[in-house]
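Protein Record: Sequence and Backbone Structure Tokens
======================================================
Tokens: labelled as protein backbone structure tokens, with as many entries as the chain has residues.
Question of interest: how does this chain fold, as expressed in backbone structure tokens?

___
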Amino acid sequence: MKSFMDWLAEKFAPKMNEIFSRPWPAAISSAMQRIIPFILVGSLIFLYNVLRSFVSVLPDLSALIDYSFGLIAIIVAFTMANQVMEELKHREYGNSAGLTAISVLFMATVPFVENDSLANFLGLVGPSGIAIGMIVGIFVGAVFHNWAKLKFLKDSGLPDFFKGWINVVIPIVISLGISMILVYVFNINITQAILSIFVPLESIAQTLPGFILLCFIPAFFYTMGISSWLFSAITSPIYLSAIQRNIDAVAQGLSPTEIVTNETIFTLAFITMGGMGATLGLNLLMMRSKSRRLKTLGKIFIVPSIFNINEPIMFGAPVVFNPLLMLPVWINAVIGPIYVWILMSIGLLNIPSELVWVGQIPGPFSSVMVTEDLRALLWWAILLVIYLVIWYPFFKVYEKEVLIEEAEENLDS
């Protein structure tokens, strides 16, 4: 263990930090940090809705999600382009690039809104559209960056305000022009183009490799700041048809056989213990950290983690674009499905056979509820220990870095 931690601290972490400190990765990381308040609003309302499901007299606060977390792709597009300008030292273009990114995002999504429905539009610019917002923001940032490098009209005798207008108008026109060609000339639906890459997963979903990929791919992209909701258009039909086959089998007096369902991945709270990437273990380690900052954040994030809501810890610890904490998320996204597959395939844990499309019920209570199997308590506890062991070396190296930062801040103050 010590040699592994030494390798993490002396080889892996410095190399990854070097890569992530470069302007483009740094811009993406900075942008994802700046959207945390909007994610926290969504997380708080999700928690509130869990309470409201038991106390029906409480008012409906869904609008707070709809117009904060529900518009997150728009916020990401603006912030991404803005932060690219910041990191690449073109601060004078920051707001213009951000606003252009919003315009491009609308151009990429509005033509594909079905029935001109507000609900459909919000679906495209909500969490499932985060990847589109990121791509649009990076694209617009690249256009503005390359234009800024030309230093157009720098030595001309024109007034500064006029040169400023020209140097903003041209990259706006280029960004929107390219988008117009893609959307209106070639009729490219960017969201569907991204999702189509993952369509082959459906054919292998009910195999162990398919199970691992369905868990790993969203977790991998989640560590890049892209919500797993992006993949719901692909995964939801897979999970719904599988759970229906299990329901039908039980109705006929047979045993359920389809392991890969939404209930197994989310409601069971094994693979998503604390949220995607099994971050409950990280949260528990943070609560006992020697670092004041990590310990405080651990206490703040623990309630959402118990309810398997981990946006706060993913973006606040942060795990997103943090090379030391991204890797255990990926490892957990492989270990979790293998563990569950073995238990269910050899009969040590019941396969879910009821539709329970909820992921915010704390484990292991949800584990027993969805499997109707008391053995789930034991298997949940063992898996928690496994996750803690996986998280431990990575967390300790990260904690050491944070402690050094805190010591330097104390010296400066």
Remarks:
- The radius of gyration is 23 Å.
- The longest helix spans residues 375-412.
- The chain has two domains: 68-195, 198-412.
